[in-house]
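Hi, here's the filled form for the chain we discussed.

Project: internal
Contact: R.S.
Residues: 75
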Amino acid sequence: MQAIAQPITLTEEEVVAITGYHRAAFQLRRLEEMGIPAHRRPDNTVMVLRVYATTRPAAEAAPEKQEPKLRLIRK
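And the returned structure, exactly as it came back:
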């Protein structure tokens, strides 16, 4: 059984669905707010790699740090 290959970048419809905008400038601004890297192509469309839109950012995936246990040094 062969897996269906997905394109490496999102389609224009997918970018519109994620951002809610049709204009490239607004799409880029919204993607930047979400922390998704994107670039403007020479034909004024937005390019987003699929891996950035489908995986969780490292900050969300990392476990929470435990606070150090401090002793009271006042006597």
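Let me know if anything looks off before we file it.
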